[in-house]
């Protein structure tokens, strides 16, 4: 996948998250959307760091980082569940 396409998807998803936050009545939609994306990426890193102890890891790829950024912590949880069952 080309680099510009990944950045375009992340940028568009960031704008969509901001719009959803604004519609829901959040006073700081940009800060909330950015915080959600950062928390998702931190959760993905935490899963891989704890993987030595739990033997559950997620591969770091453009798809997994994109899902973690767009979905936040629920996205990482979904990837973990899918990894455990399949």
Molecular structure report:
- The chain has 86 residues and is mainly α.
- It has one domain.
- Helix content is 81%, strand content 0%.
- The protein has four helices and no strands.
- Helix 1 crosses helix 4.
- The longest helix has 24 residues.
- The chain is globular and about 40 Å long.
- The relative contact order is 0.13.
- The model has no long low-confidence stretch (mean pLDDT 89).
Topology of helices and strands:
Elements: H1 3-23, H2 29-49, H3 51-54, H4 62-85
Helix pairs in contact: 1-2, 1-4, 2-4
List keywords for this structure.
86 residues, mainly alpha, 4 helices
Distance between the termini: 24 Å
| Percent of residues in beta strands | under 5%
* Helix content estimate: over 70%
Estimated structural class: mainly alpha
The radius of gyration over CA amounts to: 14 Å
Give a short synopsis of this structure.
This protein has helices at 3-23, 29-49, 51-54, 62-85. It has 86 residues and is an all-alpha fold.
């Amino acid at each position: 996948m080309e680099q510009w396409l990944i950045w375009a998807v992340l940028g568009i998803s960031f704008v969509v998250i901001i719009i959803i936050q604004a519609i829901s009545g959040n006073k700081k939609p940009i800060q909330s959307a950015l915080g959600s994306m950062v928390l998702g990426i931190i959760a993905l890193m935490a899963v891989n760091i704890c993987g030595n102890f739990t033997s559950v890891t997620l591969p770091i790829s453009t798809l997994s980082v994109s899902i973690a950024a767009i979905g936040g912590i629920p996205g990482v949880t979904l990837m973990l569940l899918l990894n455990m069952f399949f």
